[in-house]
Amino acid sequence: MYIRPVHAELDVAKLHDFVRTWPLGQFTTAIPHPTIDTLQTTHIPWVLYADEGEFGVLRGHMARANPQAKAIVAQAAGSPVHELADDALVLFTSPHNAYVTPRYMTATKQENGKVTPTWVFGAAQVYGRVRAYTSGTEADAFLSQQVDALTRQQEATVPGKPWTVDEAPESYNARLRKAIIGLEITITKIEGRFKFSQDEADGDWEGIRQGFKAEGSVLGAEVVKAMEERGGDRPSLVAERAAGASASS
């Protein structure tokens, strides 16, 4: 991922928070196979274990029928637990991404018209060594724990009493586990790019912020929030903070 310094996020704790907030990551591998495309990507919801390894560990699962899983199983060559020959990549993205119209870049547009469209977004990219759990009792134990952990993680985001895996018959759960493989990624590198107009001059930055505010949408409000979180000491933000402090005193 191309990351300009002004957009870079290398704070591991902040990147871990991002992954926890948006756990659906695009898992990409490059595994040579005679009948399956080498490059494969699958959307997988992950559980992050931040306190394991240097940068954390991700655990997830995928359908055994998935061509990517078939390539993984083929490389395992009958081994029930197998470490892939090459590292994999997982890309996590925020749904709060948006097109930025040049009309919002009010200062430069008025001054010389030299403005172009752009996009704002946030993403975290993870590299790591992959261990695949493909068969046998160790794989079944891994998958049982992983599915339970993922369910608890996601049920906590839904109002009401959480559903638990043991509410379904164990015979049913066991049959489903046979249809998936487990994945464990020991993270070796994690980096983020959060492009929310940090590189824009103050006048254009404020024009973009006000433009998204005026849209009156949930997405617009989230973009404004992300811009303000990374806005630093922009004059308009400093003035707003000062006004807010005066009003509350």
TrEMBL record:
InterPro entries: Split_barrel_FMN-bd (IPR012349), TR_PAI2-type (IPR007396). Residues 229-249 are annotated as: Disordered. It comes from the Eukaryota. It holds the Pfam family FMN_bind_2. This is Purtative protein. It comes from Vanrija pseudolonga. The gene is AN10108_0.
